[in-house]
């Protein structure tokens, strides 16, 4: 197995050396297939960790250079050992920077009040009223527009400001896979003058 290819996969995914080696072997040296294999393995790890209690953590903070915008994020994990880990602290800081930059209103779509969702759907229905499309097509379009709405107002659904190709929920899942602990954003707040 090519060591350089393993290093490249580690840099892209943050997975361990042995995991990268096994994924590349399974993918017969195809880097993109190996990334997908590791992603699937990571989702399984996330599922097994998701019910574990998070009783340690840190408060991540970010203050913009103009000192007029700041954000705090309460990030939990299972143990003090991980809470003291620099990668976990960097995640908390990145999440606070994300909150400062994007001003999300909710953590996840389930947190959006039903009346807010219904109001959004009603706006989309009025937009679609002029279009001569069947009702089931209109509903699919509305669902697509709601996904875009979630990206704007829900922290976990937003594209990461440092890498628009991944969402915040995927960033957190990659850290769960790497650090082998449940990680949860409990709450956040943004201040602006």
In CATH terms, the superfamily of the largest domain is Elongation factor Ts, dimerisation domain
Beta-sheet strand percentage?
15-25%
Largest sheet: 3 strands, antiparallel
The amount of helix comes to 55-70%
CATH topology of the largest domain: Tetrahydropterin Synthase, Chain A
Please identify the oligomeric state.
Answer: single chain
Number of domains: 3
Mean pLDDT: 87
What is the string of helix and strand elements? HHHEEHHHHEEHE
| Poorly predicted segments | none
**Class of the largest domain in CATH?**
Alpha Beta
Kindly name the structural category: alpha+beta
How many strand segments?
A: 5
Give the number of helices: 8
Architecture of the largest domain in CATH?
2-Layer Sandwich
Distance between the termini: 55 Å
> Gyration radius, to the nearest Å?
20 Å
Reading side by side through the largest sheet, how are the strands ordered?
1-2-5
- Overall body shape: globular
């Amino acid at each position: 197995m090519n060591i350089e290819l393993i290093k490249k996969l580690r840099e892209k995914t943050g997975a361990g050396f042995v995991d990268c080696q096994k994924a590349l072997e399974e993918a017969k040296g195809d880097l993109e297939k190996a990334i997908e294999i590791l992603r699937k393995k990571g989702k399984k790890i996330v599922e097994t960790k998701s019910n574990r209690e998070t009783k340690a953590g840190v408060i991540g903070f970010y203050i913009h250079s103009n000192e007029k915008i700041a954000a705090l994020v309460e990030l939990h994990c299972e143990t003090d050992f991980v809470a003291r880990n620099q990668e976990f602290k960097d995640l908390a800081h990145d999440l606070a920077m994300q909150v400062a930059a994007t001003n999300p209103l909710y953590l996840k779509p389930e947190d959006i009040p039903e009346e807010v969702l219904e109001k959004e759907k009603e706006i989309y229905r009025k937009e679609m009223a002029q279009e001569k499309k069947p009702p089931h097509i209109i509903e699919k379009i509305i669902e697509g527009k709601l996904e875009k709405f979630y990206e704007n107002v829900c922290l976990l659904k937003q594209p990461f400001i440092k890498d628009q190709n991944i969402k915040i929920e995927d960033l957190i899942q990659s850290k769960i896979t790497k650090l082998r602990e449940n990680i949860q954003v409990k709450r956040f707040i943004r201040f602006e003058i």
